[in-house]
Design goal:
Length: 374
Amino acid sequence: MAAGTATFSVSLESSNGSSSTDAFLTAMLRAHEHVSDLIFSPGRVPQLQIHNELISIQGLNLRPLSADDTRRIASDLIGNNKQAIAALREQGSCDISYSLIGQARFRVNVFIQRGSCAIVMRVIPTQIPELSRLGLPVEVQEASRLRDGLVLVTGPRNSGKSSTLAALVDRINSERVCHIITLEDPIEFLHNHKQATVHQRELHSDTPSIALGVRTALRQAPDVIMVGELRERDTAEAALETAETGHLVFSGLNTPDGGKALERVLGFFSPQEQPGIRSRLAKALRLIISQRLILKKDGTARVVVTEIVRMDPEARTALTHTDFSVHRAAEILKPVLRLDDEIAKLVRAGAVELEAASMHANDPEQLRRAFSHN
């Protein structure tokens, strides 16, 4: 495969229905074994994202997509999903899940740009990953043994948060007789009942809002609740309330580290509300797991690096102190594992290049200085 391109054997001209779209998607997935996203945009040939690099597809009769092409593909993916159709018309975008039976599942975002449809499809593995196989440190397993409280899994886009959350749910599902409810937009990994009973609810099709889904879950006798992502005030408030009432709550958050996670959660609330929220977080928050994915030196895969913050008595006291500042949130946290230390270990072991590692470090200059004598 040449840099920036991938060979493709199906012609776009054959796409005249959902079955042809499925064949088109199947061929794209087969172009490379590490595809994370499929991207369809008017004016460009279809693209794959592989290890955070966009790769353009090449193939027989393949041409830049037209607005009609992307609209047709979007229509095949959405089908008769009335909620998605309404969201696309009213809000300009919609989130759905899509399956290629026996092959792959996707988290799909269809959105309007310059009056035409564009599509991004995130590939979801069909097998739920195990915590150990994800390369996560043993300290992450502590989260699956908790009985109550709030656990946040944070990181930038495409850092593996969904896989970590799914692996934690699966570990509990395998080891504990309990009731698990997930609230997702859309549902990604599919969990079968094991030791636990697992119910998965999807935004729009199963609940009109994630916040409402979390609140109504309190009447459904759950032990564990997983919220795919905290995006706004109502969901954060509902998740916090649920953690306070003796439930274990996991949630994802698009922030780079623990300090930014605290800042983001507090930012959902007004300055007048924040002292009360800080007090509640100090009691309910248990762990913040932050992670990044770094391309290995040989370019074959990405390796996870993790920072873990455990809320100790000192951090709880600092969080509730009257002179606490949201912009100094990181200062009160004392990670059990520090992200930059874990990245440095990978560089020393020769697993990743220093330059690639520096792009993911919290303090890239300090990381470079540490290796400047080599």
